[in-house]
Write a structure and sequence with these properties.
Layout (H helix, E strand, L loop, with lengths): L1 H9 L3 H25 L1 E9 L9 E4 L5 E3 L5 E6 L4 E5 L6 E4 L8 E3 L3 H4 L2 E4 L2 E4 L7 E3 L2 H6 L5 H5 L6 E4 L12 E4 L12 E4 L2 E3 L11 E7 L5 H4 L7 E6 L29 H11 L7
Amino acid sequence: MKVKSLQKILSMGKCGIIMLCIHCLFVAPVSARFQKQEGIVITGKVTDDKDGALPGVSIKVKGTAIGTSTVADGTYRISAPVGAVLSFKIIGYKAKEEIVRANTTINVVLLTDQQVLDEVVVVGYGTQKKSDITGAVTSIPKDRIDNMVRTDVVQLIQGAAAGLNVTTTAAGANPESGAVLLIRGRKSISASNDPLIILDGIPYNGSLSDINSNDIASLEILKDASAAAIYGSRASNGVLLIQTKQGTKGKVTVRYEYLYGIQRVANFPHLMTGQEYFEFKAGVVSPAGII
């Protein structure tokens, strides 16, 4: 039947040849595409560099919403089309990608990300590796400290840490009162909710705006009850640990920065003119001359 159909198409001359070409161009790729999208079932095991099973590894088909995770023994099972990319990710290890080929078994070895685990964080009693800290500590990124254009420390920490609420001076308040800092909300109705500020290991009772933001080398925020074990009840509202730049041994380094910018006043009060003030006073004065 197929031979007779082909002979019938060819007997139509040029029109038959054109129809045959169209059939080859569209029908064959579409069928191949459907076969590719069906996908194959892939299984495997994820281990570390010491051949230990890694449970909880996130596995996703890149560019799609298809995903799964490894179980207790490090094994997984996922369906993906041939040519797709599988992404393997877990905290503390370097991410890895594998291309799906004809084979249905993909075993992956993830390497430890030493850069994340060995990151040093300043705490109240010294410095520790980030992987050894059990409390809630947030470090302001060094890139933000070095490159962000700001006029004070408040602008540096605003929006930089989860759980830290920074409120600028409200309308009608004293402009010199400064910003209000709350770590994980208010702790008291009547008492102060300001966090404890530790500047170079010494409690600092002044305003943050008095600290030169260009002198800051590192800034950490202690947010949970573990801070009270170091500084006592003064740390019940959280702690801001600020380390300033210090002189170091070695060659002399000179750094020059020039920044400029334009800012608008957040709350600019509308003042009366002399004529408006006179009319206001005249309108509220009683006949007896008493306001």
